[in-house]
Amino acid sequence: MALKHVNAVVIGAGAGGGVVAKELAEAGLSVVLLERGPWARFEDHDHDELISQRTTVLGNGFGPDDERYRRVVQDSDGQWRIVLPSEGGYNNNAACVGSGTVSYGAMAWRFMEQDFRMRSTYGTPEGSTLEDWPITYADLEPCYEKAEWEIGVSGGDANLNPFAAPRRRPYPMPPHPYTFEGRILEKAAVGLGLHPFPIPMLRNTVLRDGRPACVHCRYCVGFACEVNAKCGTHNTVIPKALRTGNCELRTESVAAEILTDDRGRVRAVRYFDDRDREQIQTADLVVVSCSATETPRLLLNSRSRLFPHGLGNRNDWVGRNLQGHAYTGSFGLFASDVYDDVGPGACIAACDYNHGLPDGLVGGAMLANEFIRLPYLFANRHEPGGARWGRGHKGFQRSWFRRHAGVQGPVQEIPVFEARVEVEPGVRDHWGIPVAKLSGQRHAHDVEVGKYVAARAEQWLIAAGAIKTWQRTPGRGLSGGQHQAGTCRMGNDPKTSVTNRYGRIHEVDNLFIADGSLHVTNGGFNPVLTIMALGYWVAGHIKTQWKGTGFRS
Amino acid sequence: MKRRVNRRTFVKGVAAAGAASALASCASAPGRWRFLTQPEAELVNLISDQIIPRDQDPGAIDAGVVYFIDKQLAGPYKRFQRDYREGLVTVEKTCVSMYEKKFAEVSWNEQTKVLEALESGPSARFFELIRDHCMQGFYGSPRHGGNKDYVSFRMLGLDYPQIIGQNRYS
Q: Using a CB-CB distance cutoff of 8 angstroms, which residues of chain A are in contact with residue B49?
């Protein structure tokens, strides 16, 4: 039986898609929200470090599973290999309603003004496709504000961070308090002339929106919240969308292809439902929000006579410029306990090294202290040259677990055209859909920025009293990861971008993207709040173009 | 589910059965192992003891790391079955070539030397695998077969189950 025609299909119920579905449903459009995973429940894996989204050795806590999903990646030695979702290199994002917003660490960063104008600020380094965004921070500011207030962000006095872009409204909730570690680091940072401040977080610090405040357990990043204090799209905008009566959420529904008509307009989505039956859902418009790996995969798998290279791919830009964050930082050992078992752990940050680095370095990174290190994760945290097993290793664990701190940050990566997502017809997933194929490596410049910022992090730890420190700097190799972005760049020139400034595919009037794929550059910050803001931005445009009975652009 | 495991491990803790004898008793219980053979299990047990030895705190044998490894090899780690089957043979071969005895028959320090040889030799990949799996079994959640009585959490001074503001070990 044919499914009832709807106004909009939104593919992917994560940070971007959740926002878009709610905005369109509230505007009166009939919406089908497709999500490949089920609803996630805390009880499924509660505080199990080995099956989480942080440590995935026994599987991803919230999917995707190792049985049905595959990807192909190219190693640095040029060899192709098939990877499972729980293995490193897969570049996983959770497969569940809310996706990563269920289990993230929930840092809620606005990008800075320069982050939208990287080429104007720095020029284009050789071997890079560094470019300005087609929109500015000022364009996106109202959308950031909506995300902060509707989904819920706790944060401190904005004046504490002189590098932040201007904002009209304060955070809706007070910040998380500093842990003991945070207080030590704050004092040290002030002494160094840095500008530390509490990390803004998508996590309740007060009773809000019918959900309680954080109880400061040690399990946060990688886990669902046991008291529902973490604010994701699964417990905010998606329930709101469903309450309008205009949005139907179809879980465990895997999109295979976007179908177009003979005029080159999108007419339907072909997907597999929760019983693996093939379905065709027709719609007036489609929004793709599947993350920076799965979104290009879907577009590239949607080939037809008019679009022989995939949708939006006339100029071979779909899947290009895959980027993430080159994490860099330092670790330190202290003479006495700094661990106070107060979660989520990460609490203090500084933006002194996001921009304006010396020696012609492009961009930089926000620095923050680490989320609580769980026991298995810490077992691989030995000092360089330290014992990896045996009595020495065990002694290290026992002596230093509570006397250890880390300061790290996500280096803003310089986009590289050859770092990319393609599809591999020779390898299929459970549904017979060609899988994503990832290749390329970071720009060498990211490594240089990483070294500089790691040294600053080390300085901070030493000032805080660390008696022994070591750096961990990024290498080259494939980027992406949970912060994956950039693969369907927005831009004004159709020759060098995939969508226009509103996330609409240049070549197709009624096909939109709303996720990290749109990012021209990825900031020196965790990207989720920007993805949410882009959800409001894209949906806002669709709403203004919606004429009540059909879509006209 | 978690509660039930907790009570069971608690009762076992009171019984305070030595881990070595617990393993020996398994020999008389056919079908106790999910993937490993009895000789393989004994070898994995000895290797895990080297990776995380007992000192003033319980070690991998006390934590039942071999049960963790066996359980995962029949589950998510099915893909490593062959690595174990072949890797464990290599451990014995290496030991015999170095000391003309089986791993169980050489001294503690000689066992360490055998593993160091593996770590820096052509079997480095298998050594890394079993080293990592021992860490998982010792430091991961007890629900997976290791970390019996939360021994590693106790060593690190972490309360478990975590009840905010209530339980602190003295």
A: none
List all residues 6 or more positions away from A165 whose beta carbon is below 8 Å from its beta carbon: A110, A111, A112, A113, A137, A141
CA distance B158 to A37: 33
pLDDT at A258 over 80: yes
CA distances from A337 to A184, A196, A217, A465, B156 (A): 11, 22, 18, 12, 12
Give A444's contacts (C-beta < 8 A, 6+ positions apart). A127, A476
Interface list for A 27-66 with B (CB within 8 A): 46-50, 57-59, 66
Residue A137 phi, psi dihedral angles, 5° rounding: -55, -40
CB contact under 8 A, B53 and A57: no
pLDDT at B30: 52
Tokens of A458: 């080390």
Residue type, B147: N
ipTM, two decimals, is 0.94
From A491, A494, A493, select the one nearest A502 (Cα to Cα): A491
Please indicate whether, in this complex, the C-beta atoms of A375 and B157 are within 8 angstroms of each other: no
Q: SS3 sequence, A411-452? A: EECCCCCCCEEEEEEEEECCCCCEEEEEECCCCHHHHHHHHH
- For B8-62, the pLDDT digits (tens) are 443 343 333 344 444 554 444 556 899 999 999 999 999 999 999 999 999 999 9
β partners of residue A208: A211
C-alpha–C-alpha distance, residues B170 and B153, integer Å: 14
- Please indicate if any CB of chain A lies within 8 Å of the CB of B131: yes
| Cβ pair A255, A271 in contact under 8 A | yes
Q: Which residue does chain B place closest to A392, by CA atoms?
A: B52
CB proximity B72 to A under 8 Å = yes
H or E stretch at A87: none
Nearest CA to A551 out of A492, A511, A505 is that of A511
* Contact: B139, A216; criterion CB under 8 Å: no
A-chain residue closest to B111, CA distance = A390
In order of their start, the domains of chain A are 6-545 (3.50.50.60)
Those residues with Cβ within 8 angstroms of residue A439's Cβ, 6 or more apart along the chain or in another chain: A73, A74, A418, A419, A420, A422, A478
CA-based torsion, A272, A275, A279, A283: positive or negative: negative
Residue whose tokens read 């004092």: A187
Side by side, the strands of the sheet bearing A404-412 are: A197-198, A348-350, A367-369, A404-412, A325-333, A468-472
Query: How far, in Å, CA of A423 to CA of A438, rounded?
Result: 8
CB burial of A17-54 (b: ≥16 within 10 Å; e: otherwise) equals bbbbbbbbbbbebbbbbbbbbebbebeebbbbbbbbbb
Residue A179: what pLDDT? Answer: 96
Q: Name every residue whose Cβ is closer than 8 Å to that of residue A335 and which is 6 or more positions away in sequence.
A: A403, A465, A467
Tokens of A212: 């309680």
For A117-162, write each residue's pLDDT tens digit: 999 999 999 999 999 999 999 999 999 999 999 999 999 998 999 9
Residue B112, both tokens = 């360490």
Q: Is B58 on the interface with A (CB under 8 A)?
A: no
CB atoms within 10 A of CB A357: 18
Q: Is the Cβ–Cβ distance between A268 and A281 less than 8 Å?
A: yes
